[in-house]
């Protein structure tokens, strides 16, 4: 149980937390996000030129994106569960990793939107994970915002933002508050646009959206990565006293996080060897997703949810 006494006595330093800000954890997020965005750009470029179906790249991208969004949700759950002991430094790193996760799976959505439209299960599962990630990110962002607005001491637990009075703030507090609010609003806007884009059946300007959206997401990902690297003990110089240097050490858990990046490569090898089949993408920018004469055809390129609406007639087939 959280004791209010923890908010009145300010410790001289704080413990490190390699499970959240360790070198392997951060590298796993950064490498996965970087590879996913690069693969998204490659797929979009290939589709713009009409040169290749990029089956291997599509499969690797989907695997990495799934890994990124699940780990992003997981690390945010850990951060919120440990908010009575986790200091703002670690909590902010968790939040930045969630922003990096958001940029990754939205970039994947831009590149693989036709795949998700073709299978309603994948589409709604992706939406559900995006919504969970958004809710957790907004809750974490509110804690970060309150810690900045109240000038919370860096060695106090993040949960103390609801128990302490306003304290002296640094000179750049206003800029930090504005930036935090902008990130919170951006997460909500990106989610709404992503869901709309996923369900829109007629998009003659789909390539423009893909290119512009990818540029914005690259900027978000780069900004989050640079912020994490500069402030973390593992790679940068934190602005608070930390007890020990365990976040720089490479333990089994840190190595395991990086080794899991091999899994998408195994899927790529299976595709090359013919052990796994990947359907070809459909040129939905040149062919309408939903034809009048195909409205009762189950094999249409935009597969609707069969549990409600006019598409319930699919069960009558």
Automatic annotation (TrEMBL):
UniProt entry tagged with the keyword Cell wall biogenesis/degradation: no
UniProt region (Disordered), positions on chain: 293-317
Superkingdom of the organism of origin: Eukaryota
Signal peptide: none
Keywords carried by this UniProt record: Membrane, Transmembrane, Transmembrane helix
Biased composition (Polar residues): 299-317
Name of this chain's protein: Uncharacterized protein
Transmembrane regions: 20-48, 69-87, 93-116, 128-149, 173-199, 211-230, 250-272
